[in-house]
Amino acid sequence: MSTQETVPADPPKRLFDGPSAAPGTLSALAATWQDPPGLMGKLSAINHKTISLRFMSTTFVFFVLGGLLALAMRTQLARPDSRLFSPDTYNQLFTMHGTTMMFLFAVPVMQAIATYLVPLMIGARSVAFPRMNAYAYWVFLFGGLLLFAAFAVGAGPNTGWFSYVPLANSDYSPGKGVDIWAQMITFTELAALVEAIVLITTIFKMRAPGMSLNRMPLFVWATLVTQFMVLFAMPSVMLGSTALILDRLVGTHFYNAARGGDVLLWQHLFWFFGHPEVYLIFIPPLGFISAIIPTFARRPVFGYPAMVLALFATAFLAFGLWVHHMYATSLPQLGKSFFTVASLMIAIPSAVQIFCWIATLWTGRLNMKTPLYFVLAFFMILVLGGLTGIMLGSVSLDLQVHDTYFVVAHLHYVLIGGAVFPLFGAFYYWFPKFTGRLLDETLGRWNFWLFFVGFNVAFFPMHVLGLHGMPRRVWTYPHGMGWDAMNMAATVGAWTIALGVLVFIVNVVKSRRTGACAGPDPWGAGTLEWSMPSPPPPHNFDAMPVVHGRDPLWEPAGQPAWVGGLAADSREVLVTTVLDAQPDLRSLFPSPSIWPFVSAVMTAILFIASIFTPWAVTWGSLPVALAMIAWFWPSRRETARSAQLEQYP
Amino acid sequence: MLTSAGGLHDVLAPAGIQASRILDLWHLTLLVCAFVFAAVLIALFVAMTRAPRADGKAAPDLSSLVVRESTPGRAVIIATVASVLGLLGLVLADVLTDRALSRLPVADAVHVEMIGHQWWWETRYRDDDGNPGFVSANELHVPVGRPIIVSLKSADVIHTFWVPNLHGKKDMIPGRDAAIEFRADRAGEYRGQCAEFCGAEHALMAFSVVAQPPAQYEAWAAHQRAPAAEPTDVTVRRGQQLFMTSTCAQCHTVRGTQAAGSIGPDLTHLASRPTLAAGTVLNTPDNLAAWITDPKQLKPATTMPSNRLDPADLKALMAYLDTLK
To answer: Does B130 touch chain A (CB under 8 A)?
Structure first.
């Protein structure tokens, strides 16, 4: 059967986009890129904005759950010798808190936001591989649900988010907790790797014509650099956790010192991922800040090339300092010095960025709004966290403060100050784009001050606690150590943070209904995502913009301003070249499909069943293969349409 | 009730050369970092106060696209160079400190082996000048002014040896040899605590280091080498019999008797130790009785079983344990 039989050679009705397009083009475009209605439609959705909003909401739910776990821990530690929770429960709490915040919140939320913003910032109608993007979300969701389902029935992991062997071996951790933890890693890392491929391809091949690499918004640069780091870092922990689960389930000896394995192998594999992971969490927020500061200082960012190079330097150095988590493990002296130097030198690119931002603020005119408040708090908190990081990079100092509350303070200063504060700023900044309404400024200030004050009250005393010798990961501590008052302060601070987050939730719920209407560009920003209505139509851009500078909405319009001619009744996109973003080819994107969801369900069955029987790896891969065959089965209609567009563009 | 037991526990109050070298480095680093922190905040503050205000409708200032901004450019370069120099200084200070730490003279060192268990510490003193070695638990006695080399081993999972007043940490990793060298320069009692998460009772795994003048240390060591005293009193003898016939002897050793269990701590000189249950509580008769009858009350996940004894038996057992000085 040839295509000519089913499709007329030259169809009479064709709609192509562009500002001067025929009437009805815009509604046709919207209809083309919209997700189908109904429950099936929801499960089949592939529009990057739909998936991203789900992804962001899911990670935010995990953030709140992780925060509640932290509140429980802080309540236990408010007073010495507290017996609110048993040691085992407490150990589950801190394991779940760390695991949730790292694997289910901090890394994925950055990818989630990027899948929303990157296409809008680079002038694209979709992410690359939209079905794979949906698949990644479902896999992530099932991994997170698995972990919390286990915790809810009392079988959560209790060996820490780092799960050091031999404590995590079946001898010392019987039960399924650690297996579930290890499989949760497989789920989330699979999702993260898939998202990395989606984002890298989107950024390299789908930029609007004229957006050469040196015109990309810094947030897009930050995302690009981060996703390459994901590609190099995540396989290490997947390999590590797979070897762990093999040790536990089928009796291999990767980590069994008595049988020729090596306990330290786990630590190397884990931290080769674990340290870059900090930068996976920290680099995208650098992009948020580089988006927020220019908008609220009313000028382009100072030192764009230095900023881009700093991102690269950070990413490279991030892979050279994992051993500073292992200084106490008897490493050779020379090796330690190398890692000390690397740990200290990574401060330089961050310092360069901070200096450039201060220069931007110094020479700008400031629009003091909530997003900028969060960014200013970032400066104070992150700089302090970075300086304590320098202390931890030093071998001798680290030997004293390693595994104490000093490290707890440091890591929260870096991760909350470096990622969560900018993330809240970013949310206040882009919420109007997501929903069409502005978040309330007054509630925003309450949110900010509660969070800021609570944060410092909670975490600053922990530096001192660590110097006074309080180790981490303790379910209780004795009277009379001089730790009582500071622990109480930390608990009060933690509850204050919770109050701040509550105000944020109230603000979101209230503003979604009654917030001020935003319009396309409420902040007067310069990047492309502000050129379309808020929230954006399903197809993002009515016509593909042509970019002539780094801040297209600020700079005088160049000619041509747009390119048209993409089919409005098909998911046709413009693919451009990697370096200069010159139009390269027109590609027909896939339509919504239930199969990514089904594939994710089958993948989940495979992963979860393999916790109980190794044979699941064999029989479980069959349904996965079938679902994926169905997913990739060519649609006759789409093939014909593609051939037709090729013949009659 | 848990009360702090086992002595001083503070990074900021060193009692030995190693810890004070680290503290010196800490002070230097703190000074440099505080200066940097203040400089960044002041720069930010000045930027915030001097920059005029505008709203989102104000036209963006695009002059930087055409005019080279040499003043802020110079400032950024100077600040970056200063940061690099500061960091290099810190690297140098760190390497020098690390070098000094690794060159502690250990000519006439006392050799001790410490083995981490879930969740207590076994201390094995080696032969010293022809004197035989001996075993203790949850305490380490050291002579003031003489270097100590502690070989670190683990019986199960990873633990970390840490006495903040004397030195930094060193991991006890199954299958890997490690050692830590330090010197106590001031007499006193210093608390150590496991610093690597090692399972349910990681929080309650402490020990004490007793730094004594050399003569007192030698006397203590001589006493520890001796086996337990033979009971003379009737009640004590009954207590000993209880110990040997009940579950106690299956896990614990009392040198000089047939009790030779190796699962729990050696109890030959239990009564001379400052703490019980790995630094969980002070070694008082009440705490000991509570620990024996219901250890999970003090340390919920301990592997020590409960012992329901009638009061007379408990009294006899306590009397016996009190003779293990």
So the answer is: no
| C-alpha to C-alpha distance for A125 and A465, rounded to whole angstroms | 51
| B216-235 residues touching A, CB cutoff 8 A | none
Contact by Cβ (8 Å): A257, A251: no
Measured between alpha carbons, how far is B323 from B257 in angstroms, rounded to an integer?
A: 13
Report yes or no: A187 and A141 within 8 Å, Cβ to Cβ. Answer: no
Nearest to B156 among A172, A262, A333 (CB): A172
Q: What's the sign of the alpha-carbon dihedral A60, A62, A65, A66?
A: negative
Using a CB-CB cut-off of 8 Å, the residues of chain A touching B91 are: 340-341, 344
Asked if the bond preceding A535 is cis, omega within 30° of 0, the reply is yes
Distance CA B240, CA B268 (A): 12
Strands B134-137 and B120-125, sheet pairing: antiparallel
Structure tokens at A614: 């190794």
| Predicted local distance difference test score (pLDDT) of residue B1 | 65
Q: And the tokens for A408?
A: 């707890």
**Per the omega criterion (within 30 degrees of 0), is the bond before B119 cis?**
yes
Element of type H or E holding A52: helix A48-77
Instruction: Please report, for residues A432, A499, B31, the alpha-carbon distance to residue A441 in angstroms, rounded to integers and kept in the order given.
Output: 12, 17, 39
Residue A177, beta-bridge partner list: none
How would you class B309 by CB atoms within 10 Å of its CB: exposed for 0-12, middle for 13-18, buried for 19 or more?
middle
pLDDT, one tens digit per residue, over B93-114 is 999 999 999 999 999 899 999 9
Q: How far apart are CA A491 and CA A481, in angstroms?
A: 17
Closest-CA residue in chain B for A389?
B33
Start-end of H helices in A437-580: 441-467, 484-514
A648 pLDDT more than 80: no
Confidence bin at A6 (pLDDT 50/70/90) = very low
Contact B98 A472 (CB under 8 A): no
Q: Between the CA atoms of B26, B27, B28 and B34, what dihedral angle is there, to the nearest 10 degrees?
A: 100
ipTM: 0.96
| pLDDT-based confidence at residue A201 (cuts at 50, 70, 90) | very high
Per-residue pLDDT band for A649 (boundaries 50, 70, 90) equals low
Looking at the predicted structure, is the pLDDT value of residue B3 above 90?
Answer: no
Q: Measure the CA–CA gap between A168 and A158, rounded to whole angstroms.
A: 9
SS3 A517: strand
**Contact: B94, A340; criterion CB under 8 Å:** yes
* E strand or H helix at A338: helix A333-345
Phi/psi of residue A579, nearest 5 degrees: -85, -50
